[in-house]
Design brief:
single chain, 433 residues, six-stranded mixed sheet, 21 helices, 8 strands, 12% strand
């Protein structure tokens, strides 16, 4: 299959490089007839706040020919906004592989997110592939084609691009276009074609792709060491840093390191001289010290009821921890049976979140996870499921109401869920592994 697919691509591939507005408008017109677009980008981000888009690749099947457009935004400072017409067309699926950064770049460049969005890396997990499988590995496994990835780390900003770079770029979307129908067909055969719809819709939404400067303080390293009034200052200073880094288009940590933002929040300097003395405040900030001071004052003036609070990690009791282990054993068993990695089916964080809140609003009880694993784990915690070992295999038994009542201890509700199965939890985990 892979050899045939490779020959097909070579025989019916039309590749065009787009460098000006007229060519881009023509490409948009051609691509508007497609039902699926395979999309990828080559970018660099080492010295800028915004990723520098160096090349945009789009492939589509048009009248029996695989059309590949290599759009060069650097050569003539090409405005990519005409692509918004394609991105907003709900009849054209946009296919990416590990595409979140691509989404962000194209949203910034075109002021419109590509939707509907489909990601082959995420979808591949649901058909039995490993989590975060690479593009080359997925092409090899599903198409039987071995890609040469030697040009992946070249300087994409340098012009002219070499023939090897153009070939590499074209292959990134040519085979992506072929992966999509294979993965979709397998998802359909497994009854999983809609499982990721909600997640893909959210990920490609304007809300998800817009940067909220007021929440950037949460991303500071060791921010949990700050007290609420200090967090109020950190929120204001981090928001100023984000906006200033955007304006200057430089990495925000070049402007003001995380450690310095934390130190400002702890000390709450009262004048610009005190700010200038702090480690990490460089000469480039000399004209901005009064703005940093204004951010500090805004944080100090924040009313107590508006102080930010970070989510607190739940401290589990021994019984709660045992319950998580029992849940994990079932997750591993069901993941194996359904050809899904256990970390994709229900990562430990989701199990702990459900143990802490026991709410149907938890992620574990949403969408496809509820159907595949959530309800069963809920029954485990209600004492309606028993785990045991038979012939070296983990067995999950659903109890009748009478059996459940008979096994229930007279202690707390938490222990009712874990006590009947605590003796087999270690064996179950070993078996599932």
């Amino acid at each position: 299959m892979g050899i045939i697919a490779h020959i097909f691509v070579l025989a019916y591939l039309s590749m065009k490089t787009i460098t000006n507005h007229a060519e881009l408008e023509s490409a948009v017109s051609v691509l508007s007839a497609a039902s699926v677009l395979a999309v990828d980008t080559e970018f660099m981000r080492e010295k800028t706040y915004y990723p520098k888009l160096c090349l945009l690749q789009i492939a589509a099947e048009i009248e029996g020919t695989t059309e590949v457009f290599l759009i060069d935004p650097l050569l003539n400072n090409l405005d990519l906004k005409p692509l918004a017409q394609l991105w907003s067309d709900s009849n054209i699926v946009k296919v990416f592989h590990s595409g979140f950064q691509d989404l962000q770049i194209l949203f910034d460049a075109c002021v419109a997110p590509p939707r509907p969005y489909f990601d082959t890396q995420d979808a591949a997990v649901l058909i039995g592939q490993s989590e975060q499988v690479g593009y080359a590995a997925l092409v090899s496994r599903l198409l039987g084609v071995k890609l040469d990835k030697a040009d992946g780390f070249t300087d994409w900003a340098k012009r002219p691009l070499s023939e090897a770079q153009l070939k590499y770029a074209a292959e990134d979307v040519t085979y992506l276009l072929q992966l999509y129908p294979i993965i979709k067909a397998e998802l359909k055969s497994l009854g999983r074609q809609s499982w990721l719809d909600e997640e893909f819709a959210h990920r490609s939404s304007t809300e998800a792709l817009s940067i909220d400067v007021r929440t950037q303080y949460r991303r500071l390293k060791r921010v949990s060491s700050l007290k609420p009034p200090q967090l109020a200052i950190a929120r204001e200073v981090a928001a100023w840093r984000e906006k200033e880094a955007m304006r200057r288009d430089i990495p925000k940590r070049w402007l003001l390191p995380d450690e310095t933002v934390l130190e400002i929040a702890r000390r709450a300097p009262e004048n610009t001289d005190a700010i200038a003395e702090l480690r990490g405040v460089g000469p480039s900030l000399k004209r901005s010290l009064h703005k940093i001071l204004a951010a500090i004052e805004a944080g100090k003036a924040c009313p107590q009821e508006d102080w930010p609070h970070l989510p607190q990690r739940t401290k589990f009791s021994g019984d709660d921890s045992a319950a998580v282990e029992l849940m994990a054993a079932i997750v591993r068993k069901r993941a194996q049976q359904n050809r899904i990695s256990s970390s994709a089916l229900a990562p430990r964080a989701l199990l702990e979140d459900y143990i802490a809140h026991r709410s149907d609003d938890c992620a574990l009880m949403q969408s496809w996870r509820r159907e595949l694993i959530g309800e069963e784990l809920k029954q485990l915690l209600e004492g309606k499921i028993c785990l045991l070992m038979k012939d070296n295999c983990l067995v999950i038994e659903h109890l009748t109401s009478e059996e459940s009542a008979a096994k229930a201890p007279t202690a707390s509700p938490t222990s009712a869920a874990t006590t009947p199965t605590s003796k087999t939890s270690t064996q179950s985990t070993e078996d599932a592994e």
